[in-house]
Amino acid sequence: MSAEKIEYIQWYPGHMAKANREIKEKLKLINVVIEVVDARLPLSSKNPEINQYTWNKQHILLLNKSDLADPEVSLEWIDWFKKNTEIEKVVLFDAFDRRMKTDLVRTIHELNIKEKAQVKCLVCGIPNVGKSTVINSLIGKKKTQIGNKPGVTKGQQWLSTPDHLMLLDTPGILWPKFEDPLVGLHLAWLGSIKDTIYEKENIAADLLKYLLVYYPDELEAIYKIEVVGKNLPEVFDAIAKSRGLLVKGGEYDYARTSVLILNDFKNGRIGRITLERPE
Ligand code: GDP
Description:
Mean pLDDT: 87
Main location: cytoplasm
Distance between the termini: 25 Å
Bound molecules: guanosine-5'-diphosphate
Organism: Acetobacterium malicum
Protein name: Ribosome biogenesis GTPase A
Helix content: 40-55%
CATH architecture of the largest domain: 3-Layer(aba) Sandwich
Radius of gyration: 20 Å
Pfam families: MMR_HSR1
Structural class: alpha/beta
Order of helices and strands: HHEHEHEHEHEEHHHHH
Largest sheet: 6 strands, mixed
Function: Required for a late step of 50S ribosomal subunit assembly. Has GTPase activity.
CATH superfamily of the largest domain: P-loop containing nucleotide triphosphate hydrolases
CATH class of the largest domain: Alpha Beta
């Protein structure tokens, strides 16, 4: 599917509209908005509508899954957000890193907030960026349901942490219309939009096209193939061949090869990759 087609897809299920309304009702209680994005696509995974929650609040942007992102590009993004937004703190984060969690708690307590005794934080972001994992890390135990599928975290609840924080856990919310048609494709790469909305083979081909330009060495290493001088269909074939993904009759199985590439990217197996760069 081409990017032009994606432009016309509206992706805003009813439960997200409802969640958005519920957050607005609770906003007056909130001191800090912790917005979670995916460091591999920090702009595409940033819901532009979250700005309506942050007025009059302290705003922390977590570039989560930074362990899966290209470290050099992540630093460029940090600079970009500092220069181009009003966000108080922009932080590279790995929800499984305890040291980063300790630093985050310190950062929150250092913010200019009157009610120090119990800081109320809204944790928000689109599906699958790691909100539940961030929350579990802050509360020190598993509280919310986690899954690598969009929309698994449900409902809204207050959770307290040992560090005097109250966290409002919200479901992943997308926005009604993607202004840039590429955003839909990017969110499909991250698994933030249900795979079934787009055709997997086209999503995988677009991802592979990007990887061939920016991360050819990583592709060669993981799939044990050579990519130099090969075009996209040839690389697709080489991956299918290398992994023995064939259908009856000896043809390459493009459906399974696409799923393989998408899952390898989602789970960080291809390497530390960032799929968009600051302008
Ligand atoms: P949510 O939908 O935003 O609540 O996302 P989840 O917390 O359910 O996380 C989605 C997937 O990303 C899960 O498989 C998590 O284990 C994984 N994940 C979350 N944070 C990180 C991180 O910082 N690094 C890595 N490598 N994986 C993460």
